[in-house]
Specification:
There is one protein chain. The chain has 132 residues and is α/β, with parallel strands linked by helices. It has a five-stranded mixed beta sheet. Strands 1-2 form a two-stranded parallel ribbon. A hairpin with a 4-residue loop joins strand 3 and strand 4. The model has no long low-confidence stretch (mean pLDDT 88).
Length: 132
Amino acid sequence: MSDRPAITITQQDHDRLWVMLERQAADTETTIGLEEELSRATLVPAGNLPANIVAMNSTVRFMNEDNQREHELKLVYPSDAKGAEGCVSILAPAGSALLGLSVGDRIEWPVNGRNMLHLKIIQVTDSSQPAV
């Protein structure tokens, strides 16, 4: 699974994520991967993002195909993930992998010091964007 599926994100998420990445102290495998994803993403206005696509603040149900476990997590910015249950930071390997995918998509994503992570999107809900 070397080819990654097409991804779509909102212009607002794209801009906010670039600002966040510019503020990171060091590049990691995850931040570099997220930069690559942002560079190849199709951008749409927030109101035009289909409901079945993972955006920031979406709750996504996905399967880790390596262990066949299902998870349901909200994709959030790092400051919103600290101590919050049921959330995954965009800077976590799984968080970066999920962004922009749609229901049914599968992705292979590198994890520091481990084999690849294999995820499949099952359901996306609550993709409302916070007020600017």
